Amino acid sequence: MLKLKYLFDNSELALMLLKNWNYDDESLGLFKYFRISSNAIYPFKSQGKVYFLRFVPESEKNVESISQELKFIEISSENGFNVPKVVESKLGNFIETKNTPWGTYHAVVFESAGDETLESVQITEEIAYQYGKSLADLHQISQKKIQSNIKRESIYDIFDLVEARIANDATHSSAFLNHVKQLRAEFEKMERMDHSFGLIHYDYELDNIIYDIKTQKLFAIDFDDCMYGFYGQDVERAINSIESEIEDQLQESIKESFIKGYRDADGNLETYYKNRALFKAFADMYSYFRMKASLEEKWDNEPVWMDNLRSRLSERMRMYIAKVES
Fold this sequence. Notes:
α4 runs antiparallel to α5 (174-189), α5 (174-189) runs antiparallel to α8 (270-294) and α6 packs across α8. The protein has 326 residues and is an alpha+beta fold. The protein is built from nine helices and eleven strands. Helix content is 47%, strand content 16%.
């Protein structure tokens, strides 16, 4: 998540950045459907086709990190994996970095891959099967085609950052520090084999999978969180997403279909089954520190929506700390 100060609609900034690509003037009304989380996303059209402008402040993400993310997308696409196409700018660049009145921003444009995410459709067992299969396909590409030639941080880099932040923050208890150290020690014990460890998506959740109704194909989006980790961590995030979003009476059949699709595509589930609780604990820790970073700055007379969001995130953080320290 971006810092709260970046979560405002800024159509003027979006238009400044979009002018580096071709677009239909009459489509700018689509900007009202923007969304902002770890990036700002603004839809538009060019020659009648839907595209998405994605941008982020330079202070939040460096251009090399984005370049490596796009390289992951490119290699995946070259190996038959369904991802939206990255669109070149007027100058032939996939990333445009521009100075603006609001600071320096990195911008990328993607083709639209479909109308709905899996979060917004009625998921059948067949769709869940394809969901699991697609994740295994991505892991096969990571294992066989990528190895370590894409420069992204690893889960161990995340632990380094977390421990550094704890060391500089007296509000965290010794119990919390011990929890993080013990969690890291458990991860250090795991064998990093080619079939279990590599470049993972790490946000392969229902809202990041596009379902193209016409072709009935799935497209993965938002590779923004990709890192080197255990493939089982991707499986855990996907299963967690199913458990969070799917109705209780359908969950088991959907999870079973997802697992079958993953297994049938030669996905290795051994590490997931052995370490699901640890993978969930890492995800909770990582989420906590991302929320904490987002809330670091505070201003007088914040708008109501920001105050409400701050309260919700603060409560989630409080509950997490209470759970860890109990």
